[in-house]
């Protein structure tokens, strides 16, 4: 019951990397996904729903995402969906739709990549 | 009812690229996935089930995968599962578990990547 | 790129059935899902994240859900996630996390069911 | 990396219920799923790939499935995919594509259901 989801989207922000006081590496960025739907009568594709997500990466994934992912990239994200209510110090409130990423990869439908495995995974 | 699945696995073969008579670009490779399970009594992780899949990529994804993916890479694959029965010319038969990929990306949990979007996607 | 998700949750409202002017049957209800996490140090399970979703059903699924699903039931929902921004007539705004259901079923982990196939499916 | 999948299919066998020596309740049945594809040129739907799965249920889910699911029902199954190689006593071998179910529910796209929650879940 952990609401896992896989989405393919467009990185809309730079990656923001931080380190928690505990030492945990964290990286975050926002993506949007565009549903493409087929209109049978017109025989053409059109844009449907656009969803926005805040993606969070932790530990080694955060470190690797921080140096690999850039605004404008297309990515695959698989992880756990978290719908969060937030209230700001100024009293504003809202809903954030987050994905705590299990993993992230560049979407090879739209580009090529040179991949280099981390040293500790090659031993 | 299209049996979609997302798996994270290890590329166990070189990528085999071909072009169908229709001109369709096709790339194929095999991956294995290892389930990691936690033994609560022992307090340790251990290897569970290993699954093998034949991954097929088509069109631009095939072209990009052909130059980007190599044996030993770790990848995320999302697509449609197809369980196929086969019979060889010599009369042998078996079952192949295939994924027709919607997309593939390198798994950034295990390494870094330089990504270059295709020109036609940047226009 | 249609952001499909499968969740298991608890039906928190009655089902609201309507018919659009076009004649389309629609049924809607809200569910919440509770993540259960394991605390390795304490050796116990605890409640993690709670997500809320508005589920929409259409056509035959709407008709069947309307007579089958009740507040308090546990269900499996599979469909497409849609994150919607709304503004009310009074100027309030918010975010709604919806699932347009491909299908819904009672969760047999938590109860039993007598199922009766629709007549047109039995012909 | 646990290869989770959700499928919607047709129950092709009776449910076989057993109890392991450890006391664990187990229920198993086979399902097939039919991909429906749209032929844009002809403007019609046609049957694509058919997949077969062996579904395994455990504990309370096995008990509930045993009294709720019957041959001919349409169900939603969500769980972990396991591709298993088997060899019989007579030396034959093959591949079985199994789903260890996290949960199962009747597919309300195709019928209606009376659901009764287990007593222990209502306390």
From TrEMBL, chains A, B, C, D:
The chain holds residues 1 to 123 of 190 of the full protein. GO terms for molecular function: single-stranded DNA binding. The keyword Amino-acid biosynthesis does not apply. The gene is ssb. It comes from the Bacteria. GO terms for biological process: DNA replication. Keywords: DNA-binding. The keyword DNA-binding applies. This is Single-stranded DNA-binding protein.
